[in-house]
Amino acid sequence: MNEVRSAIQNRRTVKKFKKDAVPTEQIIELLDTAVWAPNHKLREPWRFLLFTGDGRKKLADAIEAEMGEDNKFSANIMQVPSIMLVVLEEDPRQNIWDEDFAAVSALVQNFMLAAWSEDIGTFWVTKPFLYAPKFRKPLGIQAGEKIIGMVYMGYPDVIPSAKERTPAKDKLTLFD
Ligand SMILES: Cc1cc2nc3c(=O)[nH]c(=O)nc-3n(C[C@H](O)[C@H](O)[C@H](O)COP(=O)(O)O)c2cc1C
User: Fold this and answer.
1) How far, in Å, from the CA of 175 to the mean position of ligand 1?
2) Ligand 1 pocket at CB < 6 A
3) Residues 83-107: pLDDT tens digits?
């Protein structure tokens, strides 16, 4: 199997990380690869918020602003070496919005695969608090911006085993 196919198939969602920090420069380099995602008219409809080191407290505080101090998410944030919020700049036209959402999703997958190829594990996390004004405001997320998800990242402590996929053939309608 070639390297691209192998990375796609062998990447796993990593939830337990070693404590070591991932260098910020490396994360930015990985993002500079990820932005080669296909995106219609090269709108590049994304931006990123990266929390690392003491900066993670800012994210934990935003979660607590919405959920209160007693919640499992903000407590866990300080255990994750780096967390990135990926933001879609929303277009009010439905067809453009759909294209741009697809493009940002492709970017996230690119990022996770590029990270995996450099031994960095990632976890794409979505939670209801990402929509909450009390969470968004302290982070400067504007109206008309959608948080696609949080990407947790770090060096894997545990790599979970793969969950089987349904063979594509079972979902294929072939016209030939
Ligand atoms: C948009 C999106 C949101 C996700 N949110 C969560 C989440 O909140 N919690 C979680 O455990 N996994 C989440 N995942 C990860 C999936 O659970 C994971 O990709 C799936 O179990 C397959 O595992 P693999 O990535 O190791 O192949 C999310 C994945 C995507 C694409």
Assistant:
1) 32
2) 12-13, 124-127, 149, 163
3) 999 999 999 999 999 999 999 999 9
CA distances from 20 to 16, 83, 158 (A): 12, 13, 14
**Shortest-distance Cα residue to atom 22 of ligand 1:** 13
3-state secondary structure of 51: strand
Domain residue extents for the chain: 14-171
- Tokens read off for 131: 């929509």
CB within 8 Å of 164: residues ≥ 6 apart: none
In the CATH scheme, what is the code of domain 14-171? 3.40.109.10
Question: pTM of the predicted model, to two decimals?
Answer: 0.97
Distance from the alpha carbon of residue 176 to the mean position of ligand 1, in angstroms: 34
